[in-house]
Specification:
The complex is a heterodimer of chains A (234) and B (1079).
Chain A lengths: L1 H11 L6 E7 L8 H4 L2 E5 L4 E4 L5 E7 L2 E9 L2 E3 L1 E6 L7 E5 L12 E2 L3 E3 L1 E4 L11 H6 L1 H22 L2 H27 L4 H16 L6 H14 L1
Parallel strand pairs in A: 1-10
Antiparallel strand pairs in A: 1-4, 2-3, 2-5, 5-7, 6-11, 7-8, 8-9
Chain B lengths: L1 H12 L16 E3 L15 E3 L2 E5 L4 E6 L5 E6 L6 E7 L2 E6 L5 E6 L5 E6 L17 E7 L2 E8 L3 E6 L5 E6 L8 E8 L4 E9 L4 E9 L5 E11 L6 E4 L24 E7 L8 E7 L9 E3 L4 E5 L8 E6 L3 E7 L6 E9 L10 E6 L5 E9 L4 E10 L4 E9 L3 H4 L2 E7 L13 E6 L3 E6 L2 E7 L5 E8 L4 H7 L8 H11 L3 H14 L24 E2 L19 E7 L3 E6 L5 E6 L10 E11 L16 E10 L4 E8 L38 E4 L3 E6 L7 E5 L4 E4 L3 H10 L5 E5 L2 E9 L7 E10 L4 E8 L11 E3 L5 E3 L6 E8 L9 E7 L5 E7 L9 E5 L2 E8 L9 E11 L22 E10 L3 E6 L11 E5 L3 E5 L1 H4 L10 H5 L26 E8 L5 E8 L2 E7 L13 H32 L1
Parallel strand pairs in B: 33-35
Antiparallel strand pairs in B: 1-64, 2-3, 3-4, 4-5, 6-7, 7-8, 8-9, 10-11, 11-12, 12-13, 14-15, 15-16, 16-17, 18-19, 19-20, 20-21, 22-23, 23-24, 24-25, 26-27, 27-28, 28-29, 30-31, 31-32, 32-33, 34-36, 36-37, 37-38, 39-40, 40-41, 41-42, 43-44, 44-45, 46-47, 47-48, 49-52, 50-51, 52-53, 53-54, 55-56, ...
Classes of the chains: A alpha+beta (234), B mainly beta (1079).
Family (chain A): Belongs to the EMC7 family.
Subcellular location (chain A): Membrane
Keywords (chain A): Carbohydrate metabolism, Membrane, Polysaccharide degradation, Signal, Transmembrane, Transmembrane helix
Chain lengths: 234, 1079
């Protein structure tokens, strides 16, 4: 039958050196059948030659003249590879190479693919972004919230930690704080000397004196540090 | 490599893409799926019933299956322009469709799903001869044979092919020996009993046509006989037909005597030709019974003279209609099996009269297999359609007629143009089968009636939208009062009265406030717009596609963000529609009147629609203060070839006629012009004003603040609407500032207006410059700048190094697209030019390749940004075939910080040519059918490009991807500050950029964008076979609370903080106290 058909077409188009370009779609997990694929078309160049994909996944583009073509698939929901097809004459099978959009059509590198052409659905278009929903865990995973919570915990827990520290380390800490405080004092004095506003200095000095003069009890370290930091900023 | 590419695109898109959420589908967008108006001129394309489905081929080149019960689309197959549908036939569970020049392709579909089973090329499209009509010389029939069905196809007027339906392979082919001869075959009839195929056609003789018949062997395709039948036929389309033998279609074939001569039961050729050689001899009807060896004689059918004959689709079943000179319509056929052709039934006088319109006749087989002929006639007396059905029982030689009337809405749908029906069987009254009628009306609507009950209506003329105007709705009463607009301040007492009146809403307001405060349900851009305000449905129609939401002016108010606007669409079928942009439902519709051409017939071709403000005229007929109207400028093409320019002026909210006729005109107003019936439909068509007695050349809006319309007629005279001394005076004062660029064959001519009092009353346009674009280039289109007349938000672009590129904002730019002349399609190139329309300077020019003999170029120019698309077919070394989008930006001077104030300087200044161009080309995977930029209220938001692609999708391309200054290397920190990303030649094919997501938006011809009240959001309307509308926020919805804003989170945080304070407060107090104790 096929031979007979070929014979007929050879008689009919004896003047034409053209060839019927055939191929099929390889159904896969992305696109399992024709029903999900929907109407799709195989197009050479800008639609000079085209054929629709039939229910069994085959296509046949009739009477393609010799030349170099870019073959693409027009499908609404699926993305297929593009091919470069070189039709030489009506007898020898065409050369099929893969082609990537935005690269030169003629490149020496790509290897020949098999003919008839096998079209593989590469991926399905994803049109939507998922909506962000409210969840408590997500809220607490937010770094800002985490910092907030940590600070709160620190504020509440610090006195108890200080209470349970052994006296030696407490002493060390105190001495370190004393050093820091003295450094701060010296800087502040220098500031006064260099002629900054007298009022500011007085305030700082009073604060510093309060800090240094205060009995080294529990919980004062943070206040001191804060005061020191505040003055540095000013 | 593929993976790399995907990763790269993913990387770019993680911070650029704003796709919609799946739950917003149908809320922020709508899609009206249409098929188009059926083609009913040919037997092969007219709508047919098959079980509970209607199949139709439409003028939009769509093959569709509609559910006859509810009118929904079961499936549709959209064809390309070069693959026009020529005909189809339904047989069992397959649909056979012929398409392409002279039927070059046969496709076999599954009728229930529309799945393509086979596609077979019958001949090269180049060999297809174009006939008038294109379906001439085509025939398609199906025969049952051993080993499955076979389809027998006659194409090109001389080739018959027999194709196996199961495999799609050709069993045999026959070509008439002498293809160059004048014999053209048009009819085929397969006779399976004698295994003979009868092929009938005509041949040109000296003064008229003679008939030609050949018989072929049905199994091999071999020729049995071929004869010429002397006849002189005047009209080859209507004056002859091949009438099937009498036994076909009868339910009891066994009643044929087995010993009867089989030859007697072949088909008959029936034709109409003059009974004598005299020039005005009356026409007689002849019949020639055919047999395989084609021996027999010509019989004359008595009852001369006949005027014409009509095949109502039952010729295979042995019935046709014939009309006598005295207006009588007769059903002709074989009265009994084997008898010669004679009159079977007489429908009586069917001549159109004052009380009845012309009759439509339609034939079909009913459930019992009996042929039925239906007659449909509009009665002016009853304002109803009278439908009669003749059911023949040829075996018994009997027939009967039944009838009923049904209330067709002629005010709403015009006149009936075509009828298809699926008759019930009257001879067996036990099973009351439905009797379905499908009407195609002059306004392009499709209606299905089951006896006298309307089942559904599809407004298919919406697939032929010509002009679209988007109109904002007026604000609600509360908003008007709140904003203090409306001119007059209300008095103290009226304010008190209003506020007391409003107190009845107080409980509702409080409840609403509390719920809103607690749940945080504010109006968001994606919340559905409540249509609860619209009144109860007055429509009695059960189904209407698209839905109709009747609305009164009180309910037509805008929503908080003005997403609800009115879309005024004029169609090619003379009907106006107003659609709700939030749902796509029809708000009102009205037929455009034909004026004087009503008597001769004609059509209205809309050219342009303008939104115009109130027109002040001396004797204006009471246009309410501040009311806006739409002026639709159309060309009325009467059937007697006269063309007039007609203006329709109406209120966009209701469709009410508000045309301003000058009082001197003395036009007698039709009292019914603005009358509605009980269902809220307009009683009479909208009539226009004849503005020009001739075609329209160009139309423009006069910039006089009153929105006067100026029209150029074929003598280039300016006609005004409204035409008053005031508007004339303003035209005289504005004339020196008006410039037009008009196409004139190979060149574009610039025109200005002048008035010579002595010669003419009118201003006449005279050419001031001309630009021709090469020998063989023809001007195809002139595209005006998209932002014409709109404010420009920013005049420059600040670069990363703090220098500024000033936009080239010449207000007179137009894009001209040229194509090689049709006489020389092979050579030449397409051209794209940016022209200054004041002095004709070509500012930018590219030559683009011609692809498939066409220049498929889409372009849009907005401010200083030109974007165009084309197909690059250069396959030479380094070239890559594919679709391209080019982004071009024009900036003043030769570099940054150079300013020529191009928006303000006179066009005659030499500085208008001092500008620099930045351009970049991008590859896109699919062809572009339309292109537009987004429009926002103030133009501050980023402008994105909206394109529609050949895969029936509408995409948005962010501006940052199309920025022509994208660097070709890694962006420097300065460039990164400008948000420039590295150049990638391919624009990503990302699904999240597809605005139309899974909607299949067929064949988009035009994209229109409109602004809403939100600066961030733009409405995008795609018009083609389908209608699609969505909203886009190009820079994010910066002016409304984010969709992701979580009131719950906020409330929880506040509550958490309050609890924390409550917990820590006593602790702090305790410690302070302790501190004071121990200090």
């Amino acid at each position: 039958m096929k031979l007979q058909l070929l014979g007929i077409s050879a008689i009919l188009f004896s003047t034409c050196l053209c060839l019927d370009l055939t191929g099929h779609v390889q159904w896969n997990d992305i696109c399992p059948n024709y029903r999900v694929l929907g109407p799709a078309k195989v197009v050479l160049d800008a639609g000079k030659y085209s054929a629709r994909i039939t229910r069994n996944g085959n296509f046949s583009i009739p009477d393609v003249d010799p030349g170099i073509y870019a073959l693409s698939v027009t499908s609404h929901d699926y993305i297929f590879d593009q091919f470069r097809v070189d039709v030489v004459d009506s007898t020898s099978p065409p050369h099929v190479r893969s082609h990537i959009l935005g690269t030169p059509l003629i490149s020496a590198t790509s290897a020949f693919l098999r003919y008839p052409i096998v079209l593989v659905p590469r991926h399905k278009n994803n049109y939507f972004t998922p909506r962000e929903s409210f969840n408590l865990l997500g809220m607490f995973q937010n770094p800002m919230v985490m910092i907030m919570v940590l600070t709160g915990v620190m504020m509440l827990g610090m006195p108890y930690i200080m209470k349970h520290l052994d006296p030696q380390t407490l002493e060390e800490l105190k001495s370190q704080q004393g050093k820091i405080a003295s450094i701060h004092n010296s800087i502040q004095n220098g500031d006064v000397k260099s002629g900054l506003s007298a009022l500011l200095a007085a305030e700082e000095e009073s604060k510093a004196s309060v800090a240094s003069g205060r009995a080294p009890g529990n919980g004062t370290t943070i206040q001191q540090r804060k005061a020191g930091r505040g003055s540095r900023r000013r | 490599m593929q993976l790399l590419w995907c990763l790269l695109s993913l990387f770019i898109f993680t911070f650029t893409v704003r796709a919609i959420h799946e739950s917003e589908v149908g809320i922020v967008d709508w899609h009206t799926k249409l098929v188009g108006v059926p083609m009913y001129a040919s037997h092969l394309t007219k709508p047919v019933f098959h079980e509970d489905t209607v199949f139709t081929a439409t003028s939009n080149n769509v093959l569709a299956a509609l559910n006859a019960t509810d009118g929904s689309i079961v499936w549709r197959s959209i064809h390309d322009a070069q693959d026009a549908i020529m005909g189809f036939k339904v047989h069992d569970d397959s649909l056979y469709a012929l398409s392409g020049p002279a039927g070059s392709t046969l496709r076999i579909y599954d009728v229930s799903t529309g799945h393509l089973i086979h596609e077979k090329r019958l001949h090269n499209p180049m060999e297809g001869k174009i006939h008038e009509p294109p379906t001439l010389g085509l025939a398609l029939t199906l025969v049952r044979a051993e080993g499955g069905d076979q389809s027998i196809v006659l194409t090109n007027g001389h080739t018959v092919q027999c194709i196996h339906s199961s495999t799609g392979e050709i069993a045999w082919e026959w070509r008439s020996e002498d293809q160059s001869s004048l014999v053209m075959y048009t009819h085929i009839y397969p006779d399976t009993q004698t295994s003979t195929l009868y092929v009938a056609g005509f041949a040109k003789s000296v003064r008229s046509y003679t008939l030609h018949v050949s018989t072929l062997n049905l199994t091999t395709g071999g020729v049995i006989a071929s004869v010429n039948i002397p006849a002189s036929i005047a009209n080859t389309l209507t004056d002859f037909l091949l009438l099937g033998p009498s036994r076909v279609g009868s339910s009891s074939t066994t009643s044929i005597p087995s010993d009867a001569n089989a030859d007697a039961f072949g088909p008959s050729l029936v034709w109409l030709s003059p009974s004598s050689t005299a020039s005005n001899a009356p026409l007689s009807l002849f019949s020639a019974p055919l047999s395989p060896p084609l021996k027999g004689k010509v019989l004359t059918i008595p009852n001369t003279p006949y005027k014409h004959i009509q095949d109502v689709g039952l010729s295979d079943n042995g019935l046709f209609m014939a009309f006598r000179d005295n207006g009588t319509a007769e059903v002709l056929g074989y009265e009994t099996g084997g008898s010669p052709v004679g009159v079977v039934w007489d429908f009586g006088d069917v001549t159109p009269s004052a009380s009845t319109s012309g009759s439509h006749f339609v034939g079909a087989l009913n459930g019992d297999g009996n042929p039925c002929i239906g007659k449909i006639v509009w009665s002016n007396l009853h304002n109803q359609v009278i439908h009669q059905t003749f059911e023949a029982n040829l075996q018994q030689g009997t027939g009967q007629v039944t009838g009923f009337t049904f209330p067709f809405e002629t005010n709403e749908h015009g006149t009936i143009r075509h009828v298809a029906f699926s008759p019930s069987s009257h001879l067996s009254p036990t099973n009351e089968t439905p009797h379905k009628l499908l009407l195609v009306t002059s306004t392009g609507s499709l209606q299905l009636w089951d006896r006298n009950v309307l089942q559904w209506v599809r407004e298919e003329s919406l697939a032929t939208v010509q002009t679209v105007t988007i109109v904002e709705l007026p604000p609600t009463r509360e908003e008007v009062i709140g904003a203090g607009v409306g001119g007059k301040s209300e008095s103290f007492w009226s304010k008190i009265a209003r506020q007391i009146g409003d107190t009845k809403n107080l409980p509702h307001y409080i409840i609403h406030f509390v719920t809103r405060f607690v749940t945080g349900s504010y109006a968001t851009p994606s919340s559905p717009i409540s249509l609860a305000r619209s009144g109860p449905s007055t429509s009695t129609l059960p189904h209407l596609f698209p839905n109709r939401s009747p609305a009164s002016p009180e309910t037509l108010v805008r929503d908080p963000f003005s997403f609800r606007q009115l879309l005024i669409a004029s169609t090619a079928h003379g009907k106006l529609f107003a659609l709700d942009t939030s749902t796509g439902a029809i708000v009102w519709s009205r037929i455009l009147g034909l004026g004087w051409a009503r008597k001769v017939g004609g059509r209205i071709a809309p050219a342009k629609a303008f939104m115009v403000r109130k027109t002040e005229t001396g004797g204006g007929n009471g246009v309410p203060e501040g009311q806006e109207g739409i002026a639709l400028i159309t060309q009325r093409i009467a059937d007697n070839t006269l063309v007039d320019t007609v203006i329709f002026h109406f209120d966009p909210l209701t469709g009410e006629d508000i045309k301003t006729v000058t009082s001197t005109d003395g036009v007698t107003e039709n009292p019914r012009v603005n009358v509605k019936d009980a269902c809220g439909r307009w009683v009479s068509p909208l009539e226009g004003v004849d503005a020009i007695a001739g075609p329209l050349i160009d139309v423009f809006l006069l910039p006089d603040g009153k929105d006067t319309i100026g029209m150029l007629d074929e003598f280039l005279q300016v006609q005004l609407y409204p035409d008053t001394p005031i508007t004339r005076a303003s035209l005289t004062s504005l004339a020196p500032q008006l410039y037009f660029a008009l196409r004139a064959g190979t060149q574009v001519l610039g025109h200005q207006l002048g008035l010579n009092d002595e010669l003419s009353f009118f201003h006449v346009a005279f050419p001031t410059w001309g630009v021709s674009f090469g020998e063989d280039e023809e001007v195809v289109a002139i595209i005006k700048s998209a932002n014409k007349g709109r404010e420009v938000a920013s005049i420059g672009r600040v670069k990363g190094d703090r220098s500024t590129l000033y936009k080239y904002l010449n207000p007179h730019l137009s894009v001209v697209i040229s194509a090689p002349r049709t006489s020389s399609p092979r050579s030449g190139t397409c051209g794209l030019y940016v022209v200054d329309t004041v002095k004709g300077t070509v500012l930018y020019h590219v030559s683009l390749p011609v692809v498939n003999g066409k220049c498929d170029i889409q372009a849009v120019l907005d401010e200083n940004w030109l974007v165009y698309s084309y197909y690059d077919d250069d396959a030479e070394a380094g070239g890559a075939k594919g679709y391209r989008i080019v982004s071009v930006e024009m900036y003043e001077g030769n570099g940054p910080d150079e300013k020529t104030s191009s928006s303000d300087i006179t066009s005659y200044s030499g500085k208008t040519t001092e500008f620099s161009v930045y351009e970049q080309v991008f590859a896109v995977p699919h062809g572009v059918t339309a292109i537009a930029t987004t429009t926002t209220k103030f133009g501050v938001s980023t402008k994105d490009i909206i394109i529609s692609s050949r895969k029936n999708a509408v995409h948005s391309i962010p501006r940052r991807l199309l920025n022509p200054r994208r660097p070709k290397r890694k962006p420097t920190s300065e460039e990164a500050e400008e948000m420039l990303v590295q150049y990638d030649p391919a624009l990503p094919d990302d699904g999240r950029l597809v605005l139309s997501h899974y909607y299949d938006v067929a064949d988009v011809r035009q994209i229109i964008t409109a602004s809403s009240l939100l600066e961030s959001t733009s409405l995008v309307l795609a018009v083609g076979t389908d209608l699609f509308l969505t909203r886009v926020a190009t820079s994010g919805t910066f002016d409304v609370l984010s969709e992701n804003f979580n009131k719950m989170q906020l409330v929880l945080t506040v509550v958490g903080l309050a609890v924390a304070i409550a917990v820590t407060k006593p602790m702090v107090r305790r410690r302070k106290l302790r501190e004071q104790w121990y200090q």
